[in-house]
Amino acid sequence: MKIKLKSILNFVLIAFAFGIFAAAGFDIAMRILTRTKKIVLVPNVIGMNIIDAMDVLQEKGLYPVKEKQLIADETVPRGNVVKQNPLPGSVVKKGRVVKLTLSEGGTLVYVPDLKDKTIQEAEILLTRSNLKLGNVSEIFNDEVKEGRIISQNPQSGTIARPQTLIDVIVSKGPASLMGFLVMPYLVGKSTMQAQEILKSIGFEVSEIEYIINDNLKEGTIMKQQPPPGEILSEDVRIKFFASKHSEKETVRGKKFIYWEVPQDIKERTVKIVVKDATGMRKVYENIEPPGKKISLEVETIGTAEAIFYIDDVPVARKKL
């Protein structure tokens, strides 16, 4: 009888202990599960308009708050998110406040390509870009039709402030039709191309002076004498001023990168790599929407270029 009672008592104690451990385990599991449900990753809303950004954050169980102070940013449209705190990808609890800072809006614009356009067409393009037509010069040119733009300053693709004046040179047509030869427009061409053009009209280069310029391809003509459009005589001396890269690979400088993500139907991973005398290094990587304008300043050594990637595929290069 005592043995049987002892066995029953042992069974009760074991069952009670098991129940305590099971209850404790269940409680711990529930706490972990509950805590896990309260943890979320902060989504990236930078670049979004404020309404869409707040909707995205609220869907994640977060509490968006708009900051009163705006930040001037050339790349993010006015009213869109330019900064968020906590940062995208941060692990936070549901209900966490996410502070959103909006952009005052950018002011820089792209300079359109005016080459081979008429003055009327150029004025329309410039007006659309919030720019203005500057000085208009005319010279004879055998390559570009009369009334069409030969060149422009600033160059197409560069960035400028609104209402910047864009100077242009317009073709007066072939000089050969007038019965005489004139100095062709050779700025921007390589010294080799320029010499071939001159040779085709019976002239040679007398002198080439090189000027240090790490922003242009070596051998690019920066200035010419005589100037474009001047009548050429048999004894004329033709001189080029061409670009030459710095021989010092240790020359440091700060360069500005400005790029617009190509139009597409969805967001893409954008990566920017800078190549200079030190090698290649990544300076930017983020998931960006189509049309996003990216600007950043980087330090370079020697000659440098920026390589732009979309989903790890190189899509563009730009000399810095």
Describe the protein:
With 320 residues, this protein is α+β, with helices and mostly antiparallel strands. The protein starts with a helix and ends with a strand. Strands 16-15-18-19 form a four-stranded antiparallel sheet, with no helix packed on it. It has four helices and 19 strands. A hairpin with a 2-residue loop joins β18 and β19. It folds into four domains: 39-102, Trypsin Inhibitor V, Chain A (2-Layer Sandwich), CATH 3.30.10; 110-171, Trypsin Inhibitor V, Chain A (2-Layer Sandwich); 180-245, Trypsin Inhibitor V, Chain A (2-Layer Sandwich), CATH 3.30.10; 252-319, Immunoglobulin-like (Sandwich), CATH 2.60.40. Residues 20-24 have low confidence and may be disordered. 21% of the residues lie in helices and 35% in strands. It has helices at 2-37, 50-59, 119-128, 191-200; strands spanning 39-41, 63-66, 81-85, 91-93, 97-102, 109-110, 132-139, 149-153, 159-160, 165-171, 207-212, 221-225, 239-244, 252-260, 268-276, 279-288, 293-301, 305-310, 313-319.
